[in-house]
Design a protein that fits this description.
Elements: H1 11-14, E1 17-26, E2 30-35, E3 38-47, E4 53-60, E5 63-70, E6 78-81, E7 85-94, E8 100-109, E9 114-120, E10 123-125, E11 128-130, E12 134-135, E13 140-149, E14 155-163, E15 168-170, E16 176-178, E17 181-189, E18 194-202, E19 217-226, E20 232-243, E21 248-254, E22 258-260, E23 265-267, E24 270-272, E25 278-286, E26 296-298, E27 306-314, E28 326-334, E29 338-342, E30 346-351, E31 354-359, E32 363-368, E33 372-381, E34 384-393, E35 399-407, H2 417-420, E36 434-438, E37 444-453, E38 458-465, E39 477-482, E40 487-491, E41 494-496, E42 499-501, E43 503-506, E44 511-514, E45 522-523, H3 556-576, H4 581-600, H5 604-623
Parallel strand pairs: 12-20, 22-32
Antiparallel strand pairs: 1-8, 2-3, 3-4, 4-5, 6-7, 7-8, 9-13, 10-11, 13-18, 14-17, 14-19, 15-18, 16-17, 19-20, 21-25, 23-24, 25-28, 26-30, 27-28, 29-32, 30-31, 33-34, 34-38, 35-37, 35-39, 36-37, 39-40, 41-42, 43-44, 44-45
Helix pairs in contact: 3-4, 4-5
Length: 624
């Protein structure tokens, strides 16, 4: 391509002069000026008598030129040094002492000043913003080149060369492309002119191994051209691009933030009748451009008050890519009323030497329902014991409750003690709500048929027993029914030898287990053989109570008490009636043996006869 030839190439007529400053040169005194970085010395050497002309000399680097200039003659009023410097005489003046001075204007040749500015627009990819100086792997970026002549003179034969740093280039209309180098010819640019060009580069995909922070790109541009004296001028510009940071998004949500308790159960390792559940889900998305590996994720613990019914999972929480996110969902079944917090999910990673943390919001699940608890305690009161029952509704919904407790005959229930424990002003619990059923063998079923417990309410019952020793007592039960069809049964602790033994319900096996720290956890056997609400005094009763009763009937303990009673009576009578000891001793032994055999064979009538016979023998002996 032939070089452009400017039509304005004459130094005499086309040089663009720029006023530098105005000076007053006093006769014989020199002054220095800086013209485009070169120092010149000026001096007024002589004046005409009419004070219309002056002899002006210019010195640069030892070279001197001198000429008479005439202020009133345009063609003779200036002196030019190599078309770099120009001085123009504008007048001559005198001071009070008649000393003349020359007034001059100093000009310098205008020079072009070329500037190149590279810029790019920010881009948005989903939730990610790539700034002007960032790149996205595999993505395009439009580059803008702004050229301007900020000087005081035009420049010509301009060439713009752009090094794209080996980036692929597209949309480069008007440019020549050679091995990722762009070139464009521009004829000329006058002072103050500007031009703009565009092209598009494509950044390479990430190799998945090299640190993105070590992969940067720089585009360099150079604009060069010459002035009227064929001197070369250049302007340079560059724009560097760095990678973006990895961006993950961690999201937690629950499908139902507020739900009610339901009466579900487990059969064959499957939850049935859980009509209100919620799903807790955690999603980890990669919104950035780099696969994140070795991710450390801290998932929130599921509160113990929820059963995890099912788990759905997809992806790998250690590796999150753009195409393969990760999620985990857990179906939760509430086991208790209350407000429960699921803490934030936190993901951290060291990504090529930089630490990043992403976290979700915490979630709150509110479970509505009655929360019934039943406590049974034993308090020694002299020679008797007080048994205290307390049912409490700690939930936020009311419930209808029924309480029942079994009192073995061996602990000697005190008649009327349950009724006397209820204050007369208790408007919640009335006489007809209570049940006290005396079984044929001296045992009792006691309880409450039905009382409404509002949220925060409690029901207190107590009764007395008079056992011979620290008693074995079974647990009490409380059946409840709340709104939305929620119902269930809770148990209290039980006592062995007067020692309290707590229980816990195993939801998976559906069994109650004793919480004894000194021994392995054992299944608590059923202590109730009959429904207390359908029991009559003539019903036969078979009860299995842990390991405390090994006989096939309830009378094992009774036999022991009868034997002890006979031993005590025999020792007492021997002391009181020493004279008849030989008769009473064998007699009591025989009576005791008969009574024990009678009880073991269920000969209830014989027990009565033996008791009467014993009484008569004692009376006869006392009369003697």
């Amino acid at each position: 391509m032939a070089a452009y030839v400017s039509p304005y190439s004459s130094l005499e007529t086309d040089t663009q002069w720029v006023s530098k400053e105005s000076l007053t040169l006093q006769w014989g005194k020199a002054q220095r000026v800086d013209i485009n970085g070169v120092i010149y010395t000026l001096r007024a050497d002589d004046f005409d008598v009419r004070r219309n002309a002056a002899s002006i000399s210019i010195e640069k680097e030892g070279n001197i030129i001198k000429e008479f200039l005439f202020a009133n003659t345009e063609s003779e009023n200036s002196l030019i040094w190599d078309y770099e410097f120009k001085i123009e005489l504008t007048g001559v003046s005198e001071d009070s002492s008649k000393t003349p001075s020359a007034s001059v204007i100093v000009y310098e040749r205008g020079l072009p000043e070329l500037t190149v500015t590279l810029s790019a627009e920010s881009q948005t990819y989903g939730a990610i913003t790539v700034s002007e100086t960032q790149y996205a792997p595999g993505k395009e970026k439009k580059i803008t080149v702004d050229l301007k002549n900020n000087g005081d003179a035009w420049a010509e034969n301009l060439v713009l060369v752009i090094d794209t740093d080996n980036l692929d280039v597209k949309s480069y209309k008007g440019f020549e492309l050679n091995k990722n180098m762009l070139k464009r010819h521009i004829d000329w640019m006058d002072a103050g002119d500007s031009q703009t060009y565009n092209f598009t580069v494509i950044f390479p995909e990430w190799d998945g191994v090299t640190s993105p922070y070590a992969v940067n790109y720089t585009i360099n541009a150079t604009l060069s051209g010459n002035d009227i004296k064929n001197e070369i001028y250049k302007g340079n510009g560059s724009l560097s691009f760095t990678c973006t940071d990895p961006v993950l998004k961690v999201v937690s949500f629950v499908s139902k933030e507020e739900l009610n308790m339901s009466s579900w159960y487990i059969k064959d390792m499957t939850v049935h009748d859980a009509w209100e559940t919620t799903t807790f889900r955690v999603d980890i998305y990669n919104l950035g451009f780099y696969t994140v590996s070795n991710l450390d994720v801290i998932f929130p613990e599921i509160p113990d008050e929820f059963l995890i019914d099912d788990v759905f999972e997809s992806g790998n929480p250690k590796v999150i890519s753009k195409k393969v996110p990760y999620y985990i969902a857990k179906k939760l079944v509430p086991m208790r009323q209350g407000d429960f917090i699921l803490n934030k999910t936190i993901a951290t990673v060291d990504f090529f030497g930089k630490d990043f943390t992403w976290e979700s919001e915490s979630k709150v699940i509110k479970v509505h329902g009655a929360d019934i608890s039943l406590d049974k305690s034993l308090v020694k009161n002299g020679f008797s014991y007080d048994v205290l029952l307390k049912a409490v509704n700690n939930g936020d919904r009311a419930a209808w409750v029924e309480i029942h407790d079994y009192v073995p005959s061996v602990v000697n229930y005190v008649d009327g003690s349950l009724e006397r424990s209820v204050p007369s002003d208790n408007m919640t619990l009335r006489d007809w709500d209570m049940v006290v059923t005396n079984c044929y063998n001296g045992s009792y079923y006691i309880g409450v048929k039905g009382v409404l417990l509002s949220p925060g309410d409690s029901l207190d019952l107590s009764y007395q027993i008079e056992p011979y020793e620290a008693p074995d007592l079974p647990y009490a039960e409380c059946n409840f029914k709340a709104i939305e069809g929620y119902k269930g049964t809770v148990r209290s602790a039980f006592f062995k030898g007067g020692v309290r033994v707590e229980q816990q319900y195993d939801i998976v096996s559906g069994e109650w287990r004793a919480m004894e720290l000194s021994e392995p956890t054992e299944v608590v056997e059923e202590l109730y053989g009959l429904d207390m609400w359908n029991i009559s005094e003539n019903d036969s009763l078979q009860i299995a109570y842990g390991d405390s009763i090994h006989e096939s009937t309830i009378f094992g303990k009774l036999l022991e008490k009868i034997s002890n009673a006979f031993d005590s009576m025999e020792l007492g009578l021997k002391s009181a009636f020493a004279g008849v000891n030989s008769i009473v001793g064998p007699t009591f032994s025989s009576v005791e043996s008969i009574a024990v055999n009678a009880v073991e064979n269920h000969l209830y009538a014989v027990i009565i006869v033996v008791a009467i016979g014993t009484f008569l023998i004692v009376v006869v002996l006392m009369q003697r």
